[in-house]
Fold:
Amino acid sequence: MAALFSGKVLVANRERDEVETERELCRALENKVLLLYFGSGQCPRCRRFAPLLKDFFLRLTDEFYVERASQLVLVYVSRDETEEQRSAFLQSMPARWLAVPFGDAFGRELELRFSVSEVPAVVVLKPNGEVIVGNAVEEIRSMGPACFRNWQEAAELVDRNFLLAEDSDKRSRRSITDPIRRLKYKLDKKMEAKNKERKEEGEDLA
Structure:
């Protein structure tokens, strides 16, 4: 997914922090379904849809609703006329949202790439950048958070529980076998020292 944003900058909501290095982007986007939300705080249709999208996102990612956040990330691509309008809109949205900087030509590039002709629009992407849904606005309206499971299956995400278990298993194997390897190393060194002593004794007798 980071390839889509290669050489670009994303901004964390309500912060001045920029997510701009390949490593940061990979960490933020890796193994997640990506939503590109094209909208405007001034557009009447967007104002009606935004609360639904906010609730949709929170119910999948906020600890108040779920024990563990879903593998989901959202990037806001603004069509606001001014930076103040954009900032005012984002202040009412989840802090976990990312955004294309205001006035960045990359926003227009994304519109053209994904054929966005009107707002609101929500493009759903796999981690490799392939499109799952060209515009999921109606799907989100009608199904709510339930539609995420379909996207998750289509994206073929690796379950984070599996990754955590795999990491834990590796650590367990390492913690169990490391003392054995260290003991074997010590025994080998002792045998080597004894053999050296015997060899020296034999040479002295000769």
